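Posting for a labmate who doesn't have an account.
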Amino acid sequence: MRKTLLVATLLLTTNITRAADGPVTITPDVVYGHKDGLAMTFDVFTPKENAKGVGILFMVSGGWYSGWNPPEKAQAMFAPLTSKGFTVFAVRHGSSPKYGIPEAVSDVRRAVRFIRLNAKDYGIDPERIGVYGMSAGGHLSLVLGTASDEGDPKATDPVLKVSDRVQAVVAYVPPTDLTIMVRETKDRLPAYDKFPALDLDLKNAKALSPLMHVSADDPPTLILSGTKDDLVPVEHSRRIQKAFEDTKVTAKLVEYPNAGHGFAGEDLIASIGEMTAWFERHLASK
């Protein structure tokens, strides 16, 4: 999953037409919290013209590893969104193997709260926030969509008083049920041994599985999956799509018959089009 994220990032960077990207102001390394004496950060990519006042958070995560790259190099990856007037936040979380999935979830929740609390500073509407990610980043995006809250009014930290709900989700090739991926599961895929973040007991795996938290108040959600994915089989996406349909959540699953765990060529271009159209439909038109 980590390698796939890096490959997908490179594909996005090299395949997107540079002319589509308008002038963008980059605000690097914004600190949204601290943990173990370390800063948790995100980068902001703000369109200089025709900004829609919409914030889109990208989960920098593959295999629940989260790393730093120069934002100037990452800028092209977000061109399909910034060129449409969306402000993009590239959010990093505490990375595996030092930190696990519970910490990653806690971190990205805090990032949403921090951005909403400071929405005016970023020129966005606090009630028009979307999120997307690939693989583990897709999992984290779905967690924010299905299992968020309104904040804790009794918290002493002002950030924790704020809601971490999002208004639209796009998840590429996402794990949706961690209970079939952890060590306690007999028939789990051997490839999962390579991901220390999956060293969870079944109780925590269930608590951190988006599939288990689908409810009627979830935001509009788009899932993009390859039917040849042998790392996160498409059944993950099909099961949560059915759960969305059963609870009447606005949701769409797009399957790519020739794609595996990551897209290339026409599939990549088509998936980017689906993503941008989803955010335009559910956030930009409000």
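Reply:
Got it, the structure tokens are right above this. Residues 265-284 form the longest helix (20 residues).
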